[in-house]
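This entry is set out below.
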Amino acid sequence: MHKPGILLTGKISGDWYIQTLEGIKTRQPSFDYEVLQVDFEPINALLPSKMEAAVLLLEPYFAEMENRKQPYILANITLHEAVHFFSFVPEYFISIEDILQNEIKSMIGTVAILGTIYTMNHSYFSSLLPNTSIINLPEKIQDEVDDLRKEYYLASNKILAESMFNALNHLNIDQYIIACTELAVALQDSKAALNTIHIPNLQCNYLLEISGH
């Protein structure tokens, strides 16, 4: 019998998700999960401008997870948007759209998105949160956030992470939505007390809850 699952993409972010899920297993020994590794580099090369082409490479992995008939998550935030282009509607997928609708009551005041340049400027998140006051960060800060993300796609840089998140803490923003898995790793490295809606953490927690543990 299959278990709840995760579709892994990049290595650094994938390692973070596995570490987080293993932490959940330690606290909840009855919980278990299985992994399906995505061949991510060809997909990543198409992002973000060729999202519909990326779908052709991504959809078979979703089809395999659907056949397992267990809840599952995707270890990549940008690709959640691609699901809208699938030839089928996933039944068992835990989407960030569903998560945010459940978490919207936790959002207070002004909110800013932390992700890729594409994510921070695209309409996807504002369409999911039409009644939330989403603030666009200044272009210079967006560039610095994206530079940090790129750094963490390859390796950790705790000094850069500490500097970036401490700077964000001094902006007039009430909450940040962590919308990038590399930035989730960076935030963990920084130890900054940032007020966040942490999507990667929420994905892991929802996988636990929806699987009945």
Notes: The CA atoms of residues 112 and 137 lie 7 Å apart. The chain has a mean pLDDT of 93. The chain has two domains: 5-97+201-210, 102-198. The radius of gyration is 17 Å.
